[in-house]
């Protein structure tokens, strides 16, 4: 079936040549076919273009074929990502017309694009009274709008999305079939006559927000919980209802014009903020908003509107002026915009009336179904470049190109901040952030994500990679699949993830600083210096062990790790009086004195010990709280002379801890000394290992490298010593990147096994 067949100007003579062109990459749902059609018109070429399971297929003949192929790569639409263009000579058939043909099926070898923020052209339509999309909260085109979150399977056609049930009106149908329109085959296209409808008016939403209400709003990848970010009472009530004591909330502002009122934003942060992906960006804030938004933290997560619905809310708050000039002035309404997930469960995408009624005063829904959950991505600038804290909406399922091709592998991550990875050739498809596998609903979401990604990628894994921890839900899932299993050590996977995304296929060093991972000896690792050579690694050293009093409780209560530090310093008699406000302090001191607990080399627990000794945080209400509050105190890191010792591969920070345990050390001074001394010690340790091994590239992996102060100070010190630090860029350095490392290691094991046969 032909979708468009429009005659071109006649060719001046016989066609000099013909080509079959295969374009691979993110080339469906991004306006690539009308782009190809326009090029064919420009160069007076005949033939056709079609979507199929491998990407875009073109057969073209006429003059200027080289110019046509060059323009395919260099002038591609803004959301397109061209991985390869393959050409094959054909026998000319005398075609003088160019067709846009129906999509073709087959084994999937292409990919769908990520969700994209509303483009400028659609915003013009949104606020143009003469447009049929005027004030329509679901306007989109091939340059913007939902993709991944509404797609069931490929090829990317309307029938395979949650828009399948909306019949196009005559106007939308005309745009959909017009190759000259930027909405040609924009699969989510709709207008007020034929598309999804909002359950409440924009005016009602704004009125309720200004009155202090909490609103659940259905967005692209799930529901947000919104409230007025300037109202302490509203924010405090949201915390109470959501049972989220202190973990920071993100804030959405109308435009960059509103930004300077609340944060000091660098140009790099602004560029990231306004990118097509529209992530949350961490920036230094000025305490202008409600105090309990980000308590005791220096950084605030901020994002700009990324759907027409968001823009309409701020437009109404600005008084609903004509045109778009209002976006160049500050808007007083600023919104807490946090994922609507309750009790550790995944973000809500449906059944909102039942699940959110206890939290929200008003639930604003619409009838376009969300197929795939996707939280907002969270980013920051570290060492001069964007870094992920959470990778999800806007970036998934964009693949990471591996250093070399390998057999298809499914990797299932760990327990915290879980993602899954599926490889296909040199492509590694890392899922959106799934979360901690601590509830039945999150485990179910994990399983659904595996199923959906396998359908989209179209690769059948020949093995499953998983963590060494036998009790993780991800490990049990892997064991139940009936495929060959490859267990990967946690910290090895952290280094491998950075190597994979940075294209390093050679031996390197790795510094891994995180909270916990089962070591190859069964111990509690977390501050590791490794030599990694593909699928093999050697543990060159580790942080000096500290006791782990209470096991998992020590990770929640930093005062316990402070007590462990005092024990390591031979100061057991100080524990009970120093932590007299903790009911179990005396019992814990006795347990430590009797050596009745396990030990850990964890850098995360070292941060906790410092925070506990300095009185910064005794008990955490969310993971990483103590370390984040400690970092927030730092203005300029400083080095404590003699604050560490290196011996037999072990890095011992006991001298530093002894100083921090002194009662006269102020929290800010202690925080600055801790960060600066730790960075200097790690650089010294790594430099010694580099001298011994001859390796000068060192990957910095693990959740502690989300600490901007530590990462930047350490990276600078390593460079000063002639070493090359590698930081995670395409994935988070924490467990959100673990599955990629597992997949890269497992793929190398399988490839080596195949070569030996």
Low-confidence runs of at least 5 consecutive residues: 1-15
The proportion of residues in beta strands is 15-25%
How many angstroms does the end-to-end distance come to?
Answer: 47 Å
Please name the CATH architecture of the domain at 202-381.
Answer: Alpha-Beta Complex
The top-level CATH class of the domain at 202-381 is Alpha Beta
Count of strand segments: 30
Determine the structural class based on helices, strands and strand pairing. Answer: alpha/beta
Radius of gyration: 28 Å
CATH topology of the domain at 202-381: DHBP synthase
Helix content: 25-40%
Largest sheet: 10 strands, mixed
Output the CATH homologous superfamily of the domain at 202-381.
DHBP synthase
Using the alpha-carbon principal axes, give the shape. Answer: globular
Characterization of this structure:
- It is a single chain.
- β20 (463-467), α11 and β21 (485-488) form a beta-alpha-beta unit.
- The strands form five sheets. Strands 7, 8, 9, 10, 11, 12, 13, 14, 15 and 16 form a ten-stranded mixed β-sheet that branches. This protein has a seven-stranded mixed β-sheet with strand order 27-28-24-23-22-29-30, with helices on both faces.
- The chain has 757 residues and is α/β, with parallel strands linked by helices.
- The protein starts with a strand and ends with a helix.
- α5 (202-210) packs across α8 (308-317), α17 (603-613) crosses α18 and α19 (654-660) runs antiparallel to α20 (667-693).
- The chain contains 22 helices and 30 strands.
- Among the domains are: 2-101, Alpha-Beta Plaits (2-Layer Sandwich); 202-381, DHBP synthase (Alpha-Beta Complex); 544-685, Nucleotidyltransferase, domain 5 (2-Layer Sandwich), CATH 3.30.420.
């Amino acid at each position: 079936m032909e979708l468009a067949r429009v005659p071109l100007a006649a060719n001046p003579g016989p066609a000099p040549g013909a080509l079959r062109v295969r374009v691979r990459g993110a080339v469906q749902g991004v306006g690539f076919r009308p782009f190809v059609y326009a090029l064919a018109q420009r160069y007076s070429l005949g033939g056709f273009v079609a979507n199929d399971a491998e990407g875009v297929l073109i057969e073209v003949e006429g003059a200027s074929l080289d110019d046509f192929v060059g323009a395919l790569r260099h002038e591609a639409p803004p959301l397109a990502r061209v991985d390869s263009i393959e050409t094959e000579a054909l026998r000319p058939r005398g075609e003088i017309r160019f067709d846009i043909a129906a999509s073709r099926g087959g084994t999937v070898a292409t990919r769908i694009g990520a969700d994209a923020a509303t483009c400028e052209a659609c915003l013009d339509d949104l606020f143009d009274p003469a447009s049929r999309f005027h004030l329509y909260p679901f306007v989109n085109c091939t340059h913007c709008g939902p993709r991944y979150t509404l797609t069931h399977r490929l090829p990317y056609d309307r029938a395979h999305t949650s828009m399948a049930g909306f019949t196009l009106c005559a106007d939308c149908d005309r745009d959909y079939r017009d190759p000259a329109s930027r909405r040609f085959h924009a699969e989510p296209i709709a207008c007020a006559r034929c598309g999804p409808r909002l359950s409440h008016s924009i005016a009602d939403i704004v009125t309720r927000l200004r009155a202090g209400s909490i609103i659940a709003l259905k967005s692209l990848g799930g529901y947000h919980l919104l409230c007025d970010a300037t109202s302490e009472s509203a924010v405090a009530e949201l915390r109470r209802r959501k049972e989220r004591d202190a973990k920071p909330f993100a804030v959405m502002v109308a435009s960059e014009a509103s930004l300077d009122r609340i944060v000091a934003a660098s140009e790099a942060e602004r560029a990231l903020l306004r990118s097509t992906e529209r992530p949350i960006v961490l920036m230094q804030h000025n305490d202008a908003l409600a105090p309990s938004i980000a308590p005791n933290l220096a950084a605030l997560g901020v994002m700009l509107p990324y759907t027409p619905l968001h823009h309409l809310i701020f437009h109404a708050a600005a008084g609903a002026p004509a045109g778009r000039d209002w976006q160049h002035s500050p808007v007083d309404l600023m919104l807490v915009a946090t994922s609507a997930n309750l009790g550790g469960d995944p973000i809500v995408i449906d059944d909102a009336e039942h699940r959110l009624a206890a939290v929200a005063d008003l639930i604003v829904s619409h009838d376009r179904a969300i197929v795939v959950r996707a939280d907002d991505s969270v980013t920051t600038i570290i060492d001069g470049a964007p870094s992920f804290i959470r990778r999800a909406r806007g970036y998934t399922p964009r693949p990471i190109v591996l250093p070399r091709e390998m057999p298809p592998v499914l990797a299932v991550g760990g327990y915290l901040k879980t993602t899954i990875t599926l490889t296909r050739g040199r492509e590694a498809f890392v899922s959106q952030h799934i979360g901690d596998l601590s509830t039945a609903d999150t485990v179910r979401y994990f399983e659904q994500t595996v199923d959906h990604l396998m359908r989209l990628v179209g690769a059948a894994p020949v093995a499953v990679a998983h963590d060494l921890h036998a009790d993780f839900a991800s490990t049990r899932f892997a064991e139940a699949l009936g495929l060959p299993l490859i267990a990967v050590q946690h910290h090895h996977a952290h280094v491998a993830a950075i190597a994979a995304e940075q294209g390093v296929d050679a031996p390197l060093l790795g510094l891994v600083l995180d909270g916990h991972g089962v070591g190859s000896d069964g111990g509690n690792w977390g501050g590791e210096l490794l030599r990694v050579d593909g699928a093999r690694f050697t543990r060159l050293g580790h942080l000096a062990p500290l006791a782990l009093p209470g096991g998992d409780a020590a990770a929640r209560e930093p005062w316990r790790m402070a007590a462990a530090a005092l024990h390591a310093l031979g100061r057991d008699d100080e524990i009970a009086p120093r932590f007299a406000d903790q009911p179990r302090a005396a019992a814990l001191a006795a347990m430590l004195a009797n050596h009745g607990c396990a030990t850990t080399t964890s850098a995360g627990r070292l941060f906790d010990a410092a925070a506990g000794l300095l009185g910064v945080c005794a008990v955490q209400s969310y993971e990483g709280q103590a370390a984040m509050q400690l970092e927030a105190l730092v203005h300029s890191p400083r080095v404590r002379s003699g604050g560490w010792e290196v011996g037999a591969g072990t890095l011992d920070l006991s001298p530093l801890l002894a100083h921090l345990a002194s009662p006269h050390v102020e929290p800010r001074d202690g925080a600055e000394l801790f960060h600066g001394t730790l960075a200097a010690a790690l650089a010294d340790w790594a430099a010694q290992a580099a001298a011994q091994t001859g390796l000068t590239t060192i990957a910095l992996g693990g959740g502690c490298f989300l600490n901007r102060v530590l990462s930047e100070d350490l990276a600078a010190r390593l460079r000063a010593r002639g070493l090359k630090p590698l930081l995670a860029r395409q994935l988070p350095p924490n467990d959100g990147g673990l599955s990629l490392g597992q997949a890269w290691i497992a793929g190398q094991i399988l490839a080596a096994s195949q070569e030996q046969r």
